[in-house]
Every structure is written in C-alpha cells, then in structure tokens.
Write a structure and sequence with these properties.
By secondary structure, the protein is an alpha+beta fold. It is built from four helices and five strands. The longest helix is centred in the C-terminal third of the chain and has 27 residues. The radius of gyration is 16 Å and the shape is globular.
C-alpha cells in the first residue's frame, strides 16, 4: 500500500510525512487527472524553464534541514526502517541537541521534499523535462 508517483521519475511518497501535492513546492501546480477509470491523481510537468524554481526550492529545503541533513543521510544509509522515537534519539545523540518528535516529523517532511526535488531536477537536467503522475 501507499501512494506512488510514476513517469520520468518513480517512487513512493513517505507515509504520514509527505503529501501527494508536495511537488507543488517546486513551482508547478499539479493538475487533477480527470479519468473515472483511474484513481485520483495529479499530473506534473516540469521543463527547463522551471529549473530555477526547483533549484530555489532545494535551497530552501537545505536551509530548513540545516545540519540535520547529513545526519539523516547517514542514518538512512544504515537503516531500512525507522520510527520517530528512534530517529529522535539518533539525532539528539549525533547532533547534541534536544529534538522532539514534532521536530523530527517536521525535519522528515523537508527531507522527503528535498529527495523529491532532487529527482525532479536530475530528470530536468538529463531529459529536459520531468513529467509524472502522483497518486492522491
């Protein structure tokens, strides 16, 4: 189960963290698919002219993530699964901080968004576009 996106990029939205319209953040608003035979979905079409907006969105994500980005990268290289309590303990230990579960949820939203934006940008760089459908 879960919500997927597919097309020039393919993946799965983070359950409980990432909304289906998260790509809107990068400057293109999803268009509702109007097909009664298909599940609810949004169509996205990013092209070269959207690249600056995607890059700006990625910069915002990195600013919001701050030093947590590198620690999240390291955590997810070693772990296939997580829960907010485990991740909270990991970040608190490695960053010498006092994150709450709400902080972790917020950080994960930016982390998941950054991953999606990175995929979009890589597709634009490689293909000149990033066209995909996001399940709602």
């Amino acid at each position: 189960m879960g919500r997927f996106y597919q097309g020039d990029i393919e993946g799965k939205f983070w359950f409980g963290v990432q909304p289906s319209d998260d790509a809107d953040f990068f400057g293109v608003e999803g268009i509702e698919v109007e097909d009664p035979d298909e599940p609810e979905a949004l169509d996205y079409e990013f092209y070269k002219e959207h690249e600056p907006s995607v890059r700006d969105g990625l910069k915002t994500c990195l600013k919001e993530l701050g030093d947590a980005k590198i620690h999240l990268d390291q955590f997810f290289m070693k772990h296939d699964s997580y829960n907010n309590k485990i991740l909270m303990a990991y970040l608190n230990e490695h960053m010498k901080s006092s994150f709450t579960e709400e902080d972790v949820r917020n950080i994960l939203e930016w982390y998941a968004r950054h991953a999606l934006g990175t995929e979009i940008l890589e597709s634009i760089d490689q293909r000149g576009q990033c066209v995909f459908e996001a399940e709602c």
